[in-house]
Predict the structure.
Amino acid sequence: MYGENNEQKKISLAAFNISEFPVTNRQFQAFVDAGGYENEQWWGGRLPGKLSNHRRTENNRPVEIVTVDVAMAFCNWLSAQLNKDIRLPTE
């Protein structure tokens, strides 16, 4: 069901895949180590003004506190590594 209160509707979606697990600090660090913050290709032609403030805790813990721009750059980088279209989930 989609919607709020009394305006809920059923919608149909095409099949899609979504990761069962969040991105880990170790996986995100691979992006950083590969020059992810220095490569305009991942950022849509514009580099970020500053590094992300994401919390780096244990390697296998989920990445925390990243901006949408950083998450999208990571997806662009991962897409190139896996030769698959990796995107953030949307509505």
